[in-house]
Amino acid sequence: MRMPRLFRTTTFRLTLLFLALFAAAAAAFLGYIYVATAGEVSRRADNEIVREMNSLEATYRQGGVNGLNTAIIERSAGDRPFVYLLMDATGKKISGTIPGSPIDETGSGENWTRFTLTDTDSDGAELRHPARGLQKRLYGGELLFVGADTGESEAFVVGIARALWGAGALIIILGLAGGVLVSRNVARQMQGLTEAVEAVRGGDLRTRIAVRGVRDEYDELAEGLNDMLDRLEQSMGGLRHAGDAIAHDLRSPLTRLRARLEAGLIEVENGKGDPVQALEQALVDADNVLTTFNAVLAIARLQAAGRAPDPKPFDPGSLATDIAELYEAVCEDKGLDFKIELTPRLTINGAREILAQALANVLDNAIKYTPPGGAVMLRVRRRSSGEVEFSVTDTGPGVPEEDRARVVQRFVRLENSRSEPGSGLGLSLVAAVAEAHGGRLELSEGPGVIDGFGPGLRVAIVLPRPE
Amino acid sequence: MRILIIEDDLEAAEAMRRGMTEAGYDCSHAADGELGLEAARAGEFDVLIVDRMMPKRDGVSVVETLRREGDATPVLFLSALGEIDDRVVGLKAGADDYLVKPYAFPELMARVEALSRRRETGAVSTTLKVGDLEMNLLTREVHRSGTEVDLQPREFQLLEFLMRHAGQSVTRTMLLEKVWEYHFDPQTNVIDVHISRLRSKIDKGFDRAMLQTVRGAGYRLDP
User: Fold this and answer.
1) Which domains does chain A have, with CATH numbers?
2) A330, B187: Cβ pair inside 8 Å?
3) How far is A339 from chain B (nearest CA, A)?
4) Residue A417 — very low, low, confident or very high, per pLDDT cuts 50/70/90?
5) What is residue B177's DSSP assignment?
6) Which residue of B has its CA nearest to A301?
7) What is the DSSP code string of B3-32?
8) Element (H, E) at B88
9) A287 at the B interface (CB within 8 A)?
10) How confident is the model at residue B89 (pLDDT cuts 50, 70, 90)?
């Protein structure tokens, strides 16, 4: 038999455990109260009897049996709560309020007993009271018994016991009810989480856990999990997108390579083509596929990660100087005027190597498209917004405004750029690098048309203000 | 020169072995990390070529184990993983160089040759001499046939690397990695521009060109 779901929850089991502990503590506490009060009541009754016995014994020492007898008769007539019995040495009654002693033992010491007092009320009905008595042999050999009705005190003790049992039962009932309530409450909250986890396991990454807005630990957990799901969904989306993109991007160059190999094979078979040349061309094609693959993979990785790998703070000026040193010679070689302008002592937090690659791509483009006699300028500065930008401005033909958003997309190459070598992935990679750093890529017009050059292009990698 | 190839991809290993035998090297092959480790311990090799991911024992563990045992044979790491972190892991394990798959065969050869040569230059000297070209590493002066050659700092580093590997082919990627310390492939051949500048400084005006272009591979400085 399966237990109801509620009773299988950890909270309920914990509640039971605490209830058991609490019940044990309560039992000890109530037990102590019982012993303390009930014991006190009977001890007090016994003390009363002992005191009466001592008082009578004093009378006996002064007035002998006769004096004691008189005292007993006097006391019996009064309003005292005791019963008396005076017997001679053999146990025969001399005087007293009860017919015989409830104690058979007639030793020399003191003997305690419990017995029952029988009484008749005004209607003649018989009443029985629990009583307690002390019997003592006096030094003259007589036996004296003093008893007292303990009905009232015993009733009190019974009352206490009943109250304690009631309290115990109440504790357990309230504890159980509380446990059930708490478990139900927790179970309800956990159920939301469990359902969400089940849904995610089933492949639904858009599930989110309801946040109640009371800012307790469940809300915190729910928010944390929702945040995790956001990131997971984002990176899963990135991966799926990357997979599609890689498949798409590699299919065309691989198709080209295959076609070229096939054509080469046919030509060589027909004795027309040169096998060495065909193989060399195939090698070039394979390398191109590889270059494309690497670029696509790098873009996909950055997009999927959504952040720069292992960012560290560094001076963007020093990075620009290093890259400039690599490209300055290329500019000079091509007859381009190269300038670099830096704001010193800036700091950005980023992945130096991939930023270097991005900057190299931008410079590469600028050099490629600017005709000899033109100029290329690299600049690093801080914007008034606190953002840090690397910008490369050239005096090449530029990119018409309506095409600027498009050239950043993968494999988009404008008509007049097709004669230049290039994969069409350069700016896409730059954009991916900028975005991975929380920044963006901006394209705008260069210095305008001057002396037959221009209008030029200004490409800026804008990185967020360092924290 | 004896080379041990530790590579689980049999076809790749066979292609490598064929190419290297062709080039006059003595090649052995081990098909997994355990066998590779045994072979490396047993034999005297000049260079080990170790694949990163292998069954039984991966390349990082092979190199780490050898280095712990005091074996300093130069190691070239091959890996299909091209991430920066991954390269750092390989070099930290004790590899001397790192090449990402797929690679061009001349690139592999150039690197193996560079590694094998590294072992021979044990002594630290303050001057390098290749043919009539002399480089003083302390004063940072370069002379060819007694005529001083004025070089920019980067040109000096470039020439130093070429002189240390005189007679060997060095690839553009190697130069970019070792001289500029960049690990990406610039689209334009920026290296060619720097080489031609250097060439104009050390070869111009002399009847014999020392800095040669090696077709399909890179460059070579001949004595």
Assistant:
1) 5-157 (3.30.450), 235-305 (1.20.5), 312-463 (3.30.565.10)
2) no
3) 17
4) low
5) I
6) B83
7) EEEE-S-HHHHHHHHHHHHHTT-EEEEESS
8) helix B84-93
9) yes
10) confident
- Separation in Å, CA of B102 to nearest CA in chain A: 8
Which token pair is A421? Answer: 């070598």
Residues of chain A with Cβ-Cβ distance to B179 below 8 Å are: none
For residue B187, list chain A residues with Cβ-Cβ distance below 8 A.
Answer: 361, 364, 421-423, 426
B154 touches chain A (CB under 8 A): yes
Size of interface A-B (CB pairs under 8 A): 48
Residues in chain A closer than 8 A to B197 (CB atoms): 329
Contact assignment for B180 to A326 by CB distance below 8 Å: yes
pTM above 0.80, yes or no: no
ipTM: 0.80
Cα–Cα distance for residue pair A66/B91, rounded to 1 Å: 120
Q: What is the DSSP code (8-state) at residue A216?
A: S
Query: What are the pLDDT digits (tens) for A20-35?
Result: 888 888 888 888 888 8
Cα pseudo-dihedral A382, A384, A386, A390, rounded to 10: -30
Which of A291, A296, A312, A330 to mutate: most B Cβ within 10 Å?
A: A330
* Whether residue B153 has a cis bond before it, omega within 30° of 0: no
Domains of chain B: 2-118 (3.40.50.2300), 127-221 (1.10.10.10)
Using a CB-CB distance cutoff of 8 angstroms, which residues of chain A are in contact with residue B99?
none
Please choose, from the candidates B82, B173, B142, the residue with its C-alpha nearest in 3D space to the C-alpha of residue B90. B82
The amino acid occupying position A107 is G
The three-state secondary structure class of A449 is coil
Kindly state the tokens that stand for A409.
Answer: 């997309």
The CA distances from residue A235 to A426, A429, B83, in Å, are 23, 18, 18
Answer whether B180 sits within 8 Å of A310, measured CB to CB. Answer: no
- Alpha-helical runs (H) found in A202-315: 217-269, 275-305
